[in-house]
Amino acid sequence: MEVWVSIIISVCAASTPLLLAATGELVVERSGVLNLGVEGMMIIGAVTGFSVAQVTGNPYLGALAAVAAGAFFSLLFAFLTLTLVANQVATGLALTILGLGLSGMIGEGFVGQPGIKMQALEIPLLSDIPVFGKLLFGQDLIFYLSIALVFGVSWFLFRTRAGLMLRSVGDSHTSAHALGINVIRIRYLAVLFGGACSGLAGAYLSLVYVPQWVEGMTAGRGWIALALVVFASWRPARLLVGAYLFGAVTIAQFHAQATGIAIPAQFLTSLPYIATIVVLVLIARNRRATIINTPASLGKPFVPDH
Amino acid sequence: MKKTLFALAASAAVLFAGQAMADGHAKTKACFIYIGPTGDFGWTYQHDEGRKAVEAAFGDKVETAFLENVPESAEAQRPIEAFARNGCNIIFTTSFNYMDPTNKAAKKFPDVKFEHATGFKRESPNVSTYSSKFYQGRYVQGQIAAKMSKTGVAGYIASFPIPEVVRGINAFILGAQSVNPDFKLKVVWVSTWFDPPKEADAAKALIDQGVDIITQHTDSTAAMQVASERGIKAFGQASDMIKFGPETQLTSIIDDWAPYYVKRVKAVMDGTWEQVDVWHGMADGNVVMAPYTNMPDDVAKMAADTEAKIKSGEFEPFTGPVTKQDGSEWLKKGEKADIGTLLGMNFYVKGVDDKLPQ
Amino acid sequence: MRLELQKRPQSSKALAYLSPFIALGLTLVAGAIMFTLLGKNPATALYTYFVEPLFDPWARDQIILKATPLILIAVGLAVCFRSGNWNIGAEGQYLFGGMVGAMIPIYFNDWQSPLLLPMMMLMGMIGGALYGYIPAILKSRFGTNEILTSLMLVYVAQQLVDWLVRVPWRNPQGMGFPGTKSFNESAVLPDLMAGGDAHYGAVFAILAAVLMWFMLSKTLKGFEVTVLGQSPRAGRFAGFSARQMTVFAFCLSGALAGLAGIAEVSGSVEKLDDKLSLGYGFSAIIVAFLGRLNPLGIIAAGFILALSYIGGESAQIMLGISDRATRVFQGMLLFFVLACDTFIHYRVRFIPTPNKVNA
Predict the structure, then answer these.
(1) pTM here?
(2) B78/C62 CB distance under 8 A
(3) Would you say residue A246 lies in a domain?
(4) For A223-237, what is each residue's pLDDT tens digit?
(5) How many CB atoms lie within 10 A of CB B314?
(6) How many domains is chain B built from?
(7) Measured between alpha carbons, how far is B51 from B32 in angstroms, rounded to an integer?
(8) B317 and B193, same structural domain?
């Protein structure tokens, strides 16, 4: 039993950064913007989080700084694509390239230092309950935040007026604009939120997952988060399922090896990507469900006529 | 405009100075090609320590330069040649797959000395190869693991199924079996030299599979950190990783390249450089064990004894009787493995709980 | 103060030609600031980066070598992007093409024939096209997002090639290290100049760029690409099929990426190994945009980006500027290019706003 608990906790750790970044991107895409720069914002978050934690000695300040840095970095994307209506695909890519280079420069002085790990919050009494105690009440703060965020975003999108406005902007910016909604402002806010989430996801990697700074340590997780959003067909609840499925596959491949199941490692490594493609095809075939959820204006530039 | 012109002149001067050094005998220039960042705290870090030792040893008489993150492919050709053209007198290429580019460049620049780590091709007289017998340290680690483990199973995070790595795994299990004949070893292949989150995942999976000692042939400190969190013991890799696991690290194999690098640069200065093919081990000071920590005194003593025996040449890890994984005999009692088999090792010995990826 | 965009009645021709240069200029200025912050003399640094390699025949040869795959891939991407198909997975098509093209020398290592090289190049193109066909058919059949599928396929191709060169195709004399046997001479693409490293792939790149330029600007197919890219609806009225265009564009860009892959394998690496993927497929996206999706512009853009790699290396050797600076450079360049593009289509006006508490 103990073993299963610790395996599940490993899965939680593998899933949390994906879930965080994907939740942010989901809001961005719901507003009709496609930001492919998740990887870049994550790595900026990772390096900021780590360096601030090293300097201040406080991992929570580090995480906070990572949130701010992610949001600030996404502002670059917002300005280009929203104000200057630059191509979103290319701008997102530029954000990733820039983020990877910039983070390497910022982090140069922090390479090879043992970091300060954000400790798990052991809630007294509750975390001592056998099995479930550790799982539910003995994890780190960012893990709880990631779960809360999914439900919060779900509630926001489907239960609040602001959420309705955001969705309507994503569905048709022209009609939203005609209704007097400030399309650009809403999209700016959405992009900033996405950046903040990605920043936190990055901080999770460098403060919880492996408390150290390593160049390029996001290792493609930002791209997986992007795929997850589509995988979830833009529904937060499905995102939760998707992220944990992905995390489980990641961990399972090592268990398969350790138990002596002889499958080429390369096949196992590529499995999550193949799975994503299959799911993308499956959800795309289910036209009706997809059309209902896909933001119709996704990736299309909007220029208000005055 | 004036400023720009000045800058142009300045950089031209820099260029000129670079060339003057190449044939002016004023300074010897030693250059290094690295596969990773100098701060990986593993493989590349140790080579860079070697470079610093060269600087410390010769002061003003040498100049060093390095390039980080050079991909292990035909791409490496260009930076190696760029070094040769920039007045480097000796160039160290520090990863296996720089083999072909190093040899190609050596043919084009017969006056420059090339030193290729872990390779075996020496196609022109100005190429040397050098490597270290890290497996000697692995044997010692295996013995410690068998003494320290309660479950009788250790976990091994492996990078790629190349002879270097397979040799390490085999030496480890032989060492462990010399203490506990039933000792088992679980191996997980991560297909990377350096990906901390992935190495951490592999470490967690191994621990959940019941191992209580972790050893690794990947370059980051992530596994050490995971082991430390989970309260089990682990071995460091390539450098002393004690500060990543003060209560976790049992010992670490430290690659000490400094003696070799200093010797070779000196040879270039004296004009006595000659082609060599060296495979140094503990006896030469190239494979160093970090202090034996977090273990009872008797275990530390056993490890130190074995280390001393290997150093003095009294004992070699690959000495018979050794049985291969498939049950066939590899080495008869007292027989020592030949270098060719060791260099191309592509099979497991008995006791490894894994199928070697082919 | 806020910014307001006004669509120009007609895109500015002058700006269309000027904008890449303005972007380059801005990148240089930003780069100079960056070097100053790093404590380096900006003029020396920029000179080392962008001028010095041009005067060195050896460096020029290296620039050509580096520009070859970038241009080949980018001209294909230009067609793709212009038609409104977002192929982000050129890296995968490059790998797959390299792998398929390498099959002949791998399985028939001793075979020597003047037909060998053309066959390898052709196989490489077919391989790349087939791999590009996957996201295309998924998009046109099922409406799957091609950005994501093409990207996921990059990872799959990387793992596939990795497995091939480690297991079935591994050189038995290679001491267990990944990589196939080296090809024999007749499977190696000849060098452009004796003693140099740049190979005939560079000629393919220029040819491909000119051909694509001709197709885009002088043929009906090119017109179809542009119309469908700008307005799929208008394209439908004109009787063009967006679905067929998706397949066409992906296969074409896949084929060119595949050609880049096999040219690199045959001309430069001379065997298939696990280090073929160096991110050319992604860098080519920068090249495509820097060249304003115009094949002739892409030739220039490819050389500029190649120059930044080679210059970056000499900056690392001579000035100790780390290789991260090169990536920051490339990211900034793409940003400025994209920003400057705006001014071609829009007039930007600054409108002062009266001070409000809640702006």
Answers:
(1) 0.86
(2) yes
(3) yes
(4) 889 888 877 888 999
(5) 9
(6) 2
(7) 8
(8) yes
Cβ distance C310 to B68 less than 8 Å, yes or no, reads: no
pLDDT at B5: 38
Number of domains present in the structure of chain A: 1
Q: Residue holding tokens 């399985």?
A: C107
Cβ distance B336 to B319 under 8 Å? yes
Length of chain A: 306
User: Other CB atoms closer than 10 Å to residue B273's CB: what's the count?
Assistant: 18
The Cα–Cα gap between A246 and A228 comes to 9
Domain identity same for B235 and B177:
yes
Beta bridge partners of B324: B349
Tell me which residue of B111, B195, B185, B123 sits closest to B154, measured CA to CA: B185
Question: Domain holding A213: CATH number?
Answer: 1.10.3470
CATH of the domain at B108: 3.40.50.2300
Quick one: pLDDT band at residue C355, thresholds 50, 70, 90? Answer: low
Model confidence pLDDT, tens digit, residues A131-147 = 777 777 778 999 999 99
Do residues B128 and B139 both lie within one domain?
no
3-class DSSP assignment, residue C6 = strand
Secondary structure string (H, E, C) spanning A48-65: HHHHHHHHHCCHHHHHHH
B228 and B182 in one domain?
A: yes
Among A203, A257, A244, A195, which Cα is nearest to A14's? A244
* DSSP label of B130: E
Q: Pairing between strand B329-331 and B322-323?
A: antiparallel
Do B170 and B305 sit in the same domain of this protein? Answer: yes
- A277/A285 Cα distance (integer angstroms): 12
Those chains having 3 or more beta-carbon pairs within 8 angstroms of chain B are A, C
How many Cα atoms are found within 13 Å in the side-chain-facing hemisphere of A116? 15
Best CA proximity match to A34, nearest among A97, A84, A78: A78
**Closest Cα in chain A to B160:** A265
Would you state the pLDDT for residue C358? 45
Interface test with A, best of B43, B159, B201 (most A CBs within 10 A): B201
Contacts of C among chains (3+ CB pairs under 8 A): A, B
Can you say whether residue B238 is alpha, beta or left, with left for phi > 0 and alpha for psi between -120 and 50 degrees?
Answer: left
- pLDDT tens-digit series, residues A204-224: 999 999 998 988 888 888 988
Please check whether residues B173 and B144 belong to one and the same domain: yes
| C-beta separation of C70 from C283 below 8 A | yes
Domain ranges of chain C: 69-292
Q: How many CB atoms lie within 10 A of CB C91?
A: 28
* Cα–Cα distance for residue pair A150/A238, rounded to 1 Å: 10
Average pLDDT value for residue range C127-153: 90
Which residues of C are less than 8 Å from A279 in CB distance?
A: none
Do B190 and B320 lie in one domain? The reply is yes
Q: Name the residue among C4, C86, C159 with its Cβ closest to that of A269.
A: C159
Q: Classify the C-alpha dihedral B162-B164-B170-B173 as positive or negative.
A: negative
Which is nearest to C24 in space by CA: C295, C294, C323, C303?
Answer: C303
Neighbours of chain A (3+ CB pairs under 8 A): B, C
Residue C101: which of C279, C281, C272 has the closest Cα?
C272
Of B116, B132, B148, the domain-final residue: B132
Domain that holds residue B74: 20-132
Dump the DSSP string for A77-88. Answer: HHIIIIIS---H
Say if residue C122 is exposed, middle or buried (CB neighbours under 10 Å; 0-12, 13-18, 19+). middle
**Domain boundary, last residue among B72, B99, B132:** B132
Nearest alpha carbon to residue A245 among A17, A22, A12, A23: A12
**Interacting residues of B166 by C-beta distance below 8 A, sequence separation 6+:** B345, B346, B347, B348, B356, C176
The answer to whether the CB of A44 falls within 8 A of the CB of C331 is: no
CB-CB: which of A98, A108, A264 is closest to C163?
A264
Mean local confidence (pLDDT), C166-188:
83
C chain contacts of residue B96, beta-carbon cutoff 8 Å: 177
